[in-house]
Amino acid sequence: MSLKKYFNKPLTVALATVATATLAPVASAATFNFSYTSSLGTITATVDGTLQLDNNTVFVSSMSNTTFNGSAAPALPFVGSFAGVISSGSVTGQAVLSLDGSGLDFAACDNTACSSSGFGFSPPNVVGNPFDLFASIGGYGSVPLPGGELFVITNYSLTPVPDPATVLGLLSGAGVGLLCKGRKLEG
Which of 34, 41, 126, 185 could form a disulfide with 122 if both were Cys (CB 3.0 to 4.6 A apart)? Predict the structure, then answer.
């Protein structure tokens, strides 16, 4: 059989398309679903950031669609390092979250002074506590510093939102499987 005839078969083309989509390099996820439940309630949000090469650390660039206990909460356009907020009094430095809840250094605030509404995760020893802490103010409850409250890893979630191309590839694979099954039943 010639190559031209071989590639004119619909099933072969469909399989080649799925193989190409599946084997193509996948970009790091850029959007994540975030959730944390403190002693006062649950915060959820959409986080945009860059997944680092360790496949765990996320450098956060923005946070949107925030809710507190299921209701819309104040927008938090300023994100940065919790340690940066403590040392300089304003939102500075790289905001860091992680998929597994380790190594958090994050503050999200409604203004650069982080003085009226927001929340954050402090790494150990930033405010004198040897443990990871959670703190919040304003529209996110009041768990103020210097004490804050201990960070509870089981109450934390950061999950990648699937890339549309990945979902399309998986659906294409399922479609080819159904096509093959249908042809097998005919034959």
Answer: 126
Helix 164-186 / helix 10-23 crossing angle, nearest 10 deg: 150
Say how far apart CA 107 and CA 122 lie, in whole Å: 8
CA torsion, ordered 46, 146, 124, 76, to nearest 10 deg:
20
- Tally of CA atoms within 13 A in the half-sphere of 172 that contains its CB: 17
State the Cα–Cα distance between residues 132 and 53, nearest whole angstrom: 23
Write down the pLDDT at residue 64.
97
Instruction: Match 């009041």 to its residue by tokens.
Output: 142
Distance (Å) of CA 141 to CA 18, 32, 116, 127: 48, 23, 11, 19
Q: By mean pLDDT, which of 33-42, 157-166, 173-182 is the weakest?
A: 173-182
CB 45 within 8 A of CB 34: yes
Helix, strand, coil percentages, rounded to 5, for the chain: 30, 35, 40
CA–CA dist 130, 114 (Å, integer): 23
